[in-house]
Design a protein that fits this description.
CATH topology: Rossmann fold
Helix content: 40-55%
Radius of gyration: 17 Å
CATH architecture: 3-Layer(aba) Sandwich
Strand content: 5-15%
Order of helices and strands: EHEEEHEHEHHH
CATH class: Alpha Beta
Largest sheet: 4 strands, parallel
Strand order of the largest sheet: 2-5-1-6
Number of strands: 6
CATH superfamily: P-loop containing nucleotide triphosphate hydrolases
Number of domains: 1
Shape: globular
């Protein structure tokens, strides 16, 4: 199963994936494992995160091509529910998830999305136009996520992600 993680930097996506994998490994001795792909890996140079916005499209293409290669070679391993392929990117909009959804469909791998509860709460609070207090609460949530992020993303960028977050109730492809 391909799992598209969604949320801004610091929202807990990577921690949730790590906790899930560890919990399943602890419970199931015969667990066949999961893999995690992230565009963040493109920016790692000698163990340091070195971001260059001019190369963002290249970084996303790099991740998509890595996933394509894996599914082409071993896609059948991810057709059941006992092995997961996590895409640990922000995936703020459906258009950003679409290449992975298309690959899942091409290789007959089920796909789903996972949005941390705090992200959805902040998105819904932010959209309550007549509730200034709720919008402040959403900003406080985003601010706390931003503070714990490891990627030095500017705060205004994370707020923009909150504003642009597209609610997708069901992915266009799910087996």
């Amino acid at each position: 199963m391909l799992v598209l993680m969604r949320g801004w930097s610091g929202s807990g996506k990577s921690r949730i994936v790590q906790d899930f994998i560890k919990a399943v490994q602890d419970c199931a001795k015969d667990y066949s494992g999961s893999l995690v792909f992230s565009t963040d890996d493109f920016w790692l140079v000698d163990g340091k995160y070195v971001f260059d916005s001019a190369r963002l499209a290249e970084a996303h293409d790099w991740t998509i091509n890595r996933v394509r290669s894996l599914l082409k070679e071993s896609g059948e391993l991810f057709r059941g529910d006992d092995r997961h392929l996590f895409i640990d990117n922000t995936n703020i909009k459906l258009i950003y998830m679409q290449p992975y959804i298309d690959l899942a469909k091409e290789y007959d791998v089920p796909a789903c999305q996972y949005v941390p509860v705090e992200v959805m709460d902040a998105v819904y609070d932010w959209r309550k136009v007549d509730a200034v207090g709720m919008q402040r609460l959403a900003l406080l949530t985003v601010y706390s996520h931003w503070k714990r992020s490891n990627h030095s993303v500017p705060f205004h960028t994370v707020v923009r992600w909150l504003e642009e977050f597209e609610i997708v109730n069901k992915l266009p492809y799910f087996v």
